[in-house]
Design brief:
about 25% helix, alpha+beta, about 240 residues
């Protein structure tokens, strides 16, 4: 299903994917992989540490989705990659919306970018970064150090692509709601907290909507709170 293009070093696999689409609009299902990125990107404009030994990949997709459903791409990608990695013996959990965790430590992240035309997603570029044998900062973890059935970067790439295909196929056939309950169960933490005016509130994640919003039930509140991905910043208990 996928055509793979590899680079030793590149600024950003997502950027290269968009450049490729400008030159060749038939580049859907092309995968850009780099051993190292000089300008890797993360969520909210953050940089993604891209040292040698990590997996840095971008996949060009053409999902049949409205612009308002763009977050579904990240949801199915995270779900599919986690499911596929767990079949290798890893114990991957999710942190809404786009993080892969093991033992509460960050294993990888997903950055989805889209091109919109007439309120429809014309193309999506899904960037994936996963720690394999690279050095990782505090709070992170590398998959290559753990006891799994994976023995090489190539095997990791194959598993990740299998997961992406599995997630997209599931959503194409059954819709995003078919996997949201499983996504919710795969969250590393369901209980959250935040401080308002010096008072700490505790709550529970009870739902994820098909458009990507998180639904939290805070103690003492009669109405559930709904958060957009870019507007949710709380701690975990």
């Amino acid at each position: 299903m996928f055509t793979v293009i590899r680079y030793a070093e590149i600024d950003s696999t997502n950027s290269e994917a968009w450049r490729l689409l400008e030159r060749h609009q038939d580049s859907v299902n092309t995968v850009i992989i780099a051993k190292r990125q000089t300008k890797g990107r993360g969520q909210r404009g953050h940089s993604w540490q891209s040292d040698l030994g990590g997996l840095f990949m971008s996949v060009i997709l053409q999902p049949n989705l409205a612009a308002s459903q763009a977050h579904q791409i990240t949801l199915w990608t995270a779900w599919g990659i986690a499911k596929a990695l767990n079949q290798t013996g890893a114990n991957v959990k999710l942190k809404w919306l786009n993080d892969l965790l093991i033992d509460r430590r960050k294993l990888g992240g997903i950055l989805t970018e889209t091109k919109i035309e007439a309120n429809k997603i014309l193309y999506a570029v899904v960037g994936i970064g996963i720690n394999w044998t690279n050095e990782v900062p505090d709070g992170a973890i590398a998959l290559g150090e753990l006891p799994t059935t994976l023995s090489s970067m190539d095997e990791l790439i194959e598993v990740v692509l299998t997961g992406i295909e599995m997630g997209q196929t599931r959503c194409d056939r059954e819709g995003i709601t078919s996997l949201l309950a499983e996504y919710l169960e795969m969250l590393s933490e369901r209980y959250v907290r935040k401080t308002i005016d010096g008072r700490e509130l505790q709550g529970q994640i009870i739902d994820i909507r098909p458009t990507g919003e998180l639904v939290v039930r805070w103690e003492g509140n009669t109405q559930d709170a709904i958060y957009q991905p870019q507007n949710f910043s709380v701690g975990y208990q």
